[in-house]
Amino acid sequence: MKQIIKTDQAPQAIGTYSQAVKAGDTVYLSGQIALIPETMELVEGDISERIHQVFKNLSAVCEASGGNLQDIVKLNIFLTDMSHFATVNEIMAQYFQQPYPARAAVAVAQLPKDTDVEMDGVMVLQP
User: Fold this and answer.
1) CATH of the domain at 76
2) Total structural domains within the chain
3) Longest CA–CA separation in the chain, Å
4) Cα–Cα dist 51/119, whole Å
5) Residues 70/27, Cβ–Cβ less than 8 Å
């Protein structure tokens, strides 16, 4: 049985997807970009500000699912410029403690709304 997760604390879906889907104790988190939930506009400034917003958005969906960022077991990071890899690592360390989730960082040609960072993940809720 699956449960659709929806919260107004994260950006609303901009396509045919749910913010997250819970199946048993596993939650599949859809990709988040740096949209401000209240305005649905991208965060302005440098990439570090957008990375922070992405983590805030992921966190809101995790909380709406009954967990938090520490429950993420797999995180996927998509960047349009891999020169930002070190910045992602630096900021990620502010949101996660060891043991860190499994992770992939992938360079892509383009992301929704022409942003430069997107993340999705899989979370397992603690009993």
Assistant:
1) 3.30.1330.40
2) 1
3) 41
4) 9
5) no
